[in-house]
């Protein structure tokens, strides 16, 4: 049975929605977001929208690994893990290198680990009932 997640009261004290402001967001110095940057960020988040890919990336947070070990960590077949890794590589979240006949994967940069850590911390507020904070 799928769980429903309600986001209407996220971050609001007592579950109430915060009041809207008529002031410009960020004032005069608000950073402008280019369409390319927003599209790329959305593509990265789309890669994180799959539980198997999150498990694969989490398994890579401290070490390099091959497809078989990543499949075992993610609870999927090596074929499925390979397909997910291919998508993650095309998205620029992982890199691979040859080691004999095997491919060894690793995360690209520290941003991926921080994205995962923050996403899982946010999930803890819903799943474990942890209070929200700034």
Automatic annotation (TrEMBL):
GO terms for molecular function: DNA binding; DNA-binding transcription factor activity. InterPro entries: ArsR-like_HTH, HTH_ArsR_DNA-bd_dom, Metal_resp_trans_reg, WH-like_DNA-bd_sf, WH_DNA-bd_sf. Gene3D superfamilies: Winged helix-like DNA-binding domain superfamily/Winged helix DNA-binding domain. The keyword Lyase does not apply. Pfam families: HTH_20. CDD domains: HTH_ARSR. Residues 1-34 are annotated as: Disordered. Residues 33-127 form the HTH arsR-type domain. Keywords: DNA-binding, Transcription, Transcription regulation. This is Winged helix-turn-helix transcriptional regulator. It comes from Tsukamurella asaccharolytica.
């Amino acid at each position: 049975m799928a769980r429903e997640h309600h986001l209407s009261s996220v971050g609001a004290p007592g579950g109430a929605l915060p009041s809207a402001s008529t002031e410009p967001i960020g004032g005069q110095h608000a950073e402008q977001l280019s369409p390319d940057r927003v599209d790329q960020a959305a593509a990265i988040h789309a890669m994180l929208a799959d539980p198997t890919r999150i498990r694969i990336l989490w398994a890579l947070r401290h070490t390099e690994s091959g497809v078989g070990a990543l499949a075992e960590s993610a609870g999927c077949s090596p074929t499925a893990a390979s397909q997910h890794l291919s998508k993650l590589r095309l998205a620029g979240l992982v890199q691979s290198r040859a080691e004999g006949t095997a491919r060894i994967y690793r995360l690209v940069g520290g941003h991926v680990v921080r994205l995962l850590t923050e996403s899982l911390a946010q999930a803890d507020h819903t799943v474990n009932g942890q209070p929200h904070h700034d």
